[in-house]
Amino acid sequence: MDTEQKTQSEIQQSGLSAEVHALRDEVARMNNHRFIRMHDSLWKLGAFQLYRGLAFGLGSVLGATLLVSVLVRLLGSIDFVPVLGDWVQQIIEQIGVKE
């Protein structure tokens, strides 16, 4: 029974050793990944975040501009509704849209 326990322990040790080796290989592979290498210095990280923020801001402004223009067009087309027509006309005058 004692030898059986030793072999069981050796099997567990070799399995654990193989898992640690696989984990080391995976960490080494991850450290060589482009994303990790790109963020390895504070300056690179700052530049990446600056470009990301500029792209997000530009996309937000362009998207909002498109959305507002479509909304004004839709509001301008419902002039014929009696109750909403006057309200829409006031909104269009406030925005300053000229047809």
Textual characterization of the structure:
- This protein has 99 residues and is an all-alpha fold.
- It has a domain of 48 residues.
- It contains four helices and no strands.
- It starts with a helix and ends with a helix.
- The model has no long low-confidence stretch (mean pLDDT 81).
Name its key features.
99 residues; mainly alpha; 0% strand; elongated
- Quote the distance from N terminus to C terminus: 95 Å
Mean pLDDT: 81
Structural class: mainly alpha
- Largest β sheet strand count, sense and barrel closure: none
Please indicate the percent range of residues in DSSP E strands (runs of 2 or more). Answer: under 5%
User: What is the overall shape?
Assistant: elongated
Provide the helix percentage: over 70%
Rg of Cα set? 32 Å
Number of helices: 4
Q: SSE order, as H and E?
A: HHHH
Low-confidence segments, ≥5 residues, pLDDT <50? none
Number of strands: 0
Please describe the topology of this protein.
Elements: H1 2-31, H2 34-38, H3 42-76, H4 82-95
